[in-house]
Amino acid sequence: MDSGIKQRLDDFISQRGLRRTGQRERIAEVAFSRDEHFTADELFERVCKVDGETSRATVYRTLGLLVEADLLRQIDLGDSQITYDPNFHNKPSHNHLVCIDCGKVVEFEDDNVDIQTDCLTRRLGYKAIRQSIKIEANCEQLRINGRCPDLIATRLSGKRLRKKR
Amino acid sequence: MDSGIKQRLDDFISQRGLRRTGQRERIAEVAFSRDEHFTADELFERVCKVDGETSRATVYRTLGLLVEADLLRQIDLGDSQITYDPNFHNKPSHNHLVCIDCGKVVEFEDDNVDIQTDCLTRRLGYKAIRQSIKIEANCEQLRINGRCPDLIATRLSGKRLRKKR
DNA sequence: GTTATTGCAAATGATTTGCACAAGG
DNA sequence: CCTTGTGCAAATCATTTGCAATAAC
Predict the structure, then answer these.
(1) Nucleic chain D: which protein residues 37-96 of B have CB below 7 A from it?
(2) How many Cα atoms within 13 Å fall on the side-chain side of residue B132?
(3) Strand bridging mode B126-139 / B95-99
(4) What domains are there in chain A, each with its CATH number?
(5) Would you say the pTM of this structure is higher than 0.85?
(6) Range 61-120, chain A: CB under 7 Å to any strand C atom
(7) pLDDT at B164
(8) B93 CA from C17 C1′ (Å)
(9) pLDDT value at position A17?
(10) Gap from A40 CA to C15 C1', in Å?
């Protein structure tokens, strides 16, 4: 876990008069150990492997805390479960492209997008605080070559495309 | 209800070998009678006033159909319920700004945004099919004048800000 | 007459909550 | 100690579904 994240979490816990517990420690550790997005349940599974003692309820409660601390953000992938993104600490204004063919999520940052959002928002009489862009797109490689490594990987891993709610 | 919408719905029903029923007729009628966004339950309430006979289940099922026909789109307002937007038929590529102060949703269309999305997506190796942008923003009028007609309207109507899930 | 559609009530599934016990500070 | 945090199981709440009755075509 990045030390900046640990720092911010510690600060948040102190400021709010909360307590440092083993569960919170481990949940955060697992959540930020990779840059992959996850659902509450996926995180719970991962935490279980490290520590058979932590309950699902605590995972949900800690997720809420991490979101409040702005270490985690909820993103909409058009799913029935909430998806959490642990990468906003490093890439504060990134957005997402979701591949329609294989479900892969690509993160991208672009200054022009941010500027354009800012201008557009001003023109409407507001001050932009946060934006989220989701682009749903088809894979060009798949269209041209008839195959795409991401799709193959998806099929091999047996991970099925997320069901739309 | 716009005749273009009625036409598209009729076509969809025919193509799929579905049946024209009173319930579907009335649900669509109510859904497209205003340009306001709504949840399944809000639509159900409105339908009830017109017709005490239609069940919640049928409203849900018909909503699914209207989404498949691309007459309605599900949008993410960061809520625990799905919000439906009936305005994509008239403004096929609009996006949303949500006021943090009063919850008002402003729709906007912008060609530059569309072009930029297209470019960005190509550069990542994909072909953009659909995008959704949500801008969360503070109201400038409220900041400068200390008040904003939308906020006043929100308070008067007693409509509370949507709860975050 | 078939087959799709509806209403009802029960099921689902993710998330939240009340409460008694445990453990930080 | 005193208060916050945890685990458990039960509660919630939007949405979905099975099924028998009903209505399109």
Answers:
(1) 39-41, 56-57, 60-61, 64, 80-82
(2) 14
(3) parallel
(4) 3-85 (1.10.10.10), 95-157 (3.30.1490.190)
(5) yes
(6) 61, 64, 80-82
(7) 61
(8) 41
(9) 94
(10) 9
